Amino acid sequence: MLIRRPDDIQSSEITPETVYQNRRAFIGTAGALALSGLVAPSALEAMRFDSGTAGAFPGLQQDDKLTPEEDATSYNNYYEFGTGKEEPKDQAKDFKPMPWTVNVEGMVKKPRPYSFDELVGKLPVQDRVYRHRCVEAWSMVIPWQGVQLKDVVARCEPLPGAKFVEFTTLYDPRRMPGQARAVLPWPYKEALRLDEANNPLALLATGMYGKALPNQNGAPLKLVVPWKYGFKGIKAIVKIKFTDKMPNTTWNDANPSEYGFYANVNPMVDHPRWSQAKERRIGQFLKIPTLPFNGYAAQVASMYSGMDLRKYY
Amino acid sequence: MRSMLSRAESPIRRLIRPALWLLVIVPAIALVAQLLLDQLGAEPIESLEHASGKWALRLLAASLAVTPLMRLTGWGWLVAQRRFLGLATFFWAMGHLSVYIVLDQFFDWPEIVKDVLKHLYITVGMLAFVLMIPLALTSTKWSIRTLGGKRWTQLHRLVYVSAVAGSVHFLWAVKKDLAEPMIYAAVFAVLFALRLILRKRGPRTPLGSPRG
């Protein structure tokens, strides 16, 4: 399995060393099985991601420690399963993510539905420990498993004119009880510029902490773009559409003065109602400074050179 | 109706103070216990902030409910419960502010000043608290006598501004789902309306001189 990475990102920079070293074994077992969706949750449970031995994270910030799995799976913004932070864990517990189909639409060679396996199966599995910065000024450090979004983009074969890729969450109020109330204009939509989608950091997560992605975290398929605020990380994706026009996105539609299309983490641009200069790392007492692009400036800042980041927030 | 009321008066009068003490103290003890037992979720500071703010608003609503209740029942002794609830509101609001300054911001004064000046929901929240300070300071009988009933009453109308500011603080603090803060705002609206209606109907209860 050959995984090419650009020279400027050391593999160690996005992956804890011990996990990286065990990576082959991991991919051979848990990752691939989890991706195929064939394995029983109990079997995955047996291959727990051992956060205790994850050790230091070169490339992450000095004090970055894995967020306890319990916190990352019980403190969620996922309005499809309730607007309280602890509601999704409870309200999503009976959600059945499999079987899952993703419709690939718009400017692609052949628009059609893909089964989950067709879309992400057989792609190189990635282990990525990323900082996660919510627009509400809290943050976590999460070990994801998934595939590079650019590999999925390539699989969809976009036409040359495609400039954006739009993602849509499942809309099914019977399975997602939070959708019974119009808190947000359903279904949830998010989008990236195509170059952002092709950035090596962008991930379609299918697992975290070495297990299949929990329902409350966006099972079975969640976008992870660590240099952007968490709300860009759309969950339970059922549609991927390629287009040449900038798509509408849910939070931007709901409140354009507070949530932009880009939503790049930026300590210099406050949310109109609160400061973005600092963040509380879940599990830590003192707030820590927020970094431009959530600390991934070296990998992503060049995509925005010449842009006024105050205007395009 | 009247006789039922008068039969209920004596036991209620006897039990109300212990009941109100429990109302004020039990949630505080519960919160501290939850904090010590790590039962406040992934973000305990936020949980404390939200809980203390909501208790301040609930007690404020309770204290604003006393006057209409006094008019309806004619129980002048309720006025003492109003003072108790008003002071309890003040202490919960102080707890809420302390959580923000100590636990949330950890005495980062430049950031706190920036927050108060720049972020409107913090501004109105601070206003709601600051307006309560003179009310708490003049909650004694001595203050009423010194200021005179009329001036004291005028001063204490600040509580309405504080209630509006507190409700707006909650509304603006919420990211998107306004359902809960709207309920709080609605309760205050009903309490204000009740005051207006009952003011027109019943005679005022003189301050500090219980009516029989």
Q: Would you report the number of β strands of chain A?
A: 12
Q: Mind telling me the C-alpha Rg of chain A?
A: 18 Å
CATH superfamily membership of chain A: Oxidoreductase, molybdopterin-binding domain
Q: What does the oligomeric state look like here?
A: heterodimer
Mean pLDDT of chain A: 85
Total domains of chain A = 1
Which stretches of chain A are poorly predicted, pLDDT < 50 over at least 5 residues? 1-7, 16-59
Q: What's the order of the H and E elements of chain A?
A: HHHHHHEEHEEHEEHEEEEHEEH
Structural class of chain B: mainly alpha
Mean pLDDT reading of chain B: 92
**Biggest sheet details of chain A:** 7 strands, mixed
CATH-defined architecture of chain A: Alpha-Beta Complex
Give the amount of beta strand of chain B, in percent: under 5%
Percent of residues of chain A in helical segments? 10-25%
Give the overall form of chain A: globular
The tally of strands of chain B reads: 0
State the secondary-structure class of chain A: alpha+beta
Describe this structure in words.
- Chain A has 313 residues and is α+β, with helices and mostly antiparallel strands.
- Chain A has a single domain (11-303), classed as Alpha-Beta Complex (Sulfite Oxidase, Chain A, domain 2), CATH 3.90.420.10.
- Chain A is built from eleven helices and twelve strands.
- Chain A is globular and about 50 Å long.
- The N and C termini of chain A lie far apart (38 Å).
- Mean pLDDT of chain A is 85; it is low at 1-7 and 16-59.
- Chain B has nine helices and no strands.
- Chain B has helices spanning 2-36, 44-73, 78-104, 109-118, 120-137, 141-147, 149-156, 158-173, 179-201.
- Residues 208-212 of chain B have low confidence and may be disordered.
- At the A-B interface, helix 5 of A face helix 4 of B.
